[in-house]
């Protein structure tokens, strides 16, 4: 399929949520947000060595100011990588905040970059797996873990192929407008998580890929406890149900920043074997195994600030410090 190179797209899928620009977005309370967008545009035009230097400094600042979030990152690394020494975990945490700063500073690429810039600075590896299935008319779910570079892979895929995703709107309406504009610039439509699986099934049957992010801990409802890096995690079972109802195959993916080439990368792997099965727990574990493999590509670039193990099996103590009110 030829790439989509237009700056905008016309029309929206019925039921997809929109984030239009209104007069309310220009109220004084949002002037700081507009200033932030201006800074993002300037950063996009700056020499890359200067941006890299800023990322290193900003990463150190974010780490010092992270507080509770830093404690969650540290705890997740302890739980998921128990064989690492404290010094090794410190190095990984330092890298995590550096990459977090880099991906934040580069958001101008997503918001203001030209199609040619997206094509050259964001690469997709393993695209042949998707294109072979698409040519055969097979519905495809892209399993997309919450990596720091998640949006970069999504924008590049939507530039080349037609897809949809779920998202939770941001509280700041200016940032939600620019982010939604970026995500839907080429072909993508965004649906609210509260709409359930029906929109995804409908779009999959129409031949659009579904960019699915099912790795958060959303509680025990609709989840089973299976291993994630050797720790029991409340894992959603929706991926197996969605694949079964839509007759779709699941392509695991992971997106990260390649510092050596100054590019963002999303890798696609071959479809999950024998998925879905008749065992929800086995399917959930297969999903977690695929996510673990993705994280191994760039271990410091997963969203380790998520409370991955917030929900515990009955009778087990919490794994994170209690939040002070």
Head-to-tail CA distance between termini: 53 Å
Q: Record the strand order, biggest sheet.
A: 1-9-8-2-5-3-4
Spans of at least 5 consecutive residues whose pLDDT stays below 50 are: none
**Number of beta strands:** 9
Helix content: 40-55%
Q: In oligomeric terms, what are we looking at? A: single chain
**Molecular shape:** globular
* Average residue-wise pLDDT: 93
Largest sheet: 7 strands, mixed
Order of helices and strands: HHHHHHEHEHEHEHEEEHEEH
How large, in whole angstroms, is the Cα Rg? 20 Å
- How much of the polypeptide forms β-strand, as a percent range? 15-25%
Structural class: alpha/beta
Number of helices: 12
Structural description of this entry:
A seven-stranded mixed beta sheet has the order 1-9-8-2-5-3-4, with helices on both faces. It has 325 residues and is α/β, with parallel strands linked by helices. The chain has helices at 31-45, 48-65, 68-80, 86-105, 107-112, 115-121, 127-135, 150-160, 173-183, 198-205, 238-246, 280-295; strands at 122-125, 140-143, 163-167, 189-192, 209-212, 223-228, 231-236, 249-258, 263-268. The longest helix has 20 residues, at 86-105. It starts with 30 loop residues before the first helix and ends in a 30-residue tail after the last helix. It has a domain at 116-301.
């Amino acid at each position: 399929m030829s790439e989509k190179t237009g700056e905008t797209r016309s029309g929206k899928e019925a039921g997809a949520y929109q984030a239009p620009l209104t007069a309310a977005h220009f109220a004084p309370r949002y002037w700081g947000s507009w200033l932030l967008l201006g800074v993002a545009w300037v950063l996009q035009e700056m020499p890359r060595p200067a941006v890299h230097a800023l990322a290193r400094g900003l990463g150190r600042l974010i780490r010092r100011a992270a507080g509770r979030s830093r404690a969650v990152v540290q705890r997740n690394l302890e739980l998921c990588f128990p064989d690492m020494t404290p010094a090794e975990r410190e190095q990984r945490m330092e890298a995590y905040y550096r990459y977090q700063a880099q991906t934040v500073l580069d958001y101008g690429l997503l918001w203001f970059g030209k199609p040619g810039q997206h094509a050259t600075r964001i690469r997709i590896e393993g695209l042949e797996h998707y294109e072979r299935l698409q040519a055969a008319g097979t519905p495809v779910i892209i399993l997309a873990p919450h990596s720091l570079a998640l949006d970069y892979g999504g924008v590049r895929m939507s530039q080349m192929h037609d897809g949809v995703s779920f998202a939770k709107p941001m509280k700041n309406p200016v940032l939600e407008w620019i982010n939604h504009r970026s995500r839907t610039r080429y072909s993508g439509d965004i649906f609210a998580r509260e709409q359930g699986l029906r929109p995804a099934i409908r779009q999959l049957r129409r031949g659009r890929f579904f960019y699915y992010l099912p790795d958060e801990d959303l509680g025990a409802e609709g989840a089973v406890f299976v291993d994630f890096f050797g720790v029991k995690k409340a894992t959603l079972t929706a991926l197996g149900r969605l694949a079964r109802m839509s007759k779709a195959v699941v392509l695991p993916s992971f997106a990260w920043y390649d510092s050596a080439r100054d590019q963002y990368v999303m890798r696609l792997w071959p479809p999950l074997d024998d998925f879905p099965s008749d065992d929800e727990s086995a399917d959930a574990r297969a999903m977690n195994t695929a996510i673990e493999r993705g994280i191994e590509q760039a271990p410091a670039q997963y969203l380790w600030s998520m409370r991955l193990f917030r929900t515990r099996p009955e009778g087990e103590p919490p794994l994170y410090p209690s939040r002070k009110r």
